[in-house]
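Sample intake sheet
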Amino acid sequence: MLTFQALLDGFVEKSKPKVNYRKYCQLREQYFLTWVEHPTFLQIEDWHGQFASVPHHANSGLWLLKAMYTWAIRRGLHPGPNPATGLKAHRTFSRERVMSSLEVATLLGALDLLPAKLSVLLVVLLTTGCRLSEARQMQPPHINQSTGAWLQPKTKNGKPHTTYLSTQAREAMALLPHSELFIFDGRLGQCYSLNAAGKAWKAVRPMLGLQDVHLHDFRRTFATHLYMATKDDFLVKRCLNHTNPSVTAIYVRISQEEVATAIQAQADRFFALLAGPVVLPALTHGDSLPVCNGTR
């Protein structure tokens, strides 16, 4: 029987090049590098309970253990049973943070003060409602600059999806130097990394009075403001590429033109907020907006 570390290394390595690989590596480094023997159910329960203050991350570690042992048992690498089976995850709550109109106006009014790559990324996220992972991996060949159509070959639900970039997003992107591979370039021919984008945003958000706003909240902000303006649930879901199995949704068809019009109209509503006075939060003596190149 393989040791715990050998089993863990094998499971993590087999996940390449899937999205989970980087997350598994992080969890291995944070939680499991010192584990020698295969844990019992009670030992895993005790470990999981120690991290109740960070429930999402602890649950991710638990799911890693469950998946690893399931994978190993099916391949004859571990005799079983799965020691993580039956252990309940910590209760978590989904985020509900949505930027107000004033906060959106403050953000848009400060775009010129932010690092160029981050600034353009924020415009794309705010005016399309796309996922952060989709924006980071945006490729020039998939964008029709004249119509704004943006093809995403593979999305979270596994299907290709065409959405639309507002004129404001396209104008911002046109000013951002990039390679032939990605609109948002990172290091070594890769796209802008989640870590780099997160660090760049974390560095500037306190100066904007948006300390508790995460990059993932931009999608929720777009959807919420679009719904408040249209009261059309199906249109919002279509713009976000949400699947809806309800009988009503099957018979409701929203054209690509309607989606493009809705996205552009919402972008216009956001930028129209700049017509009013926008005041940045007061800075204490010596404060300034930090300069972050966000190169990854």
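Comment: The two ends are 40 Å apart (CA to CA). Residues 247-252, 278-296 have pLDDT under 50 and may be disordered.
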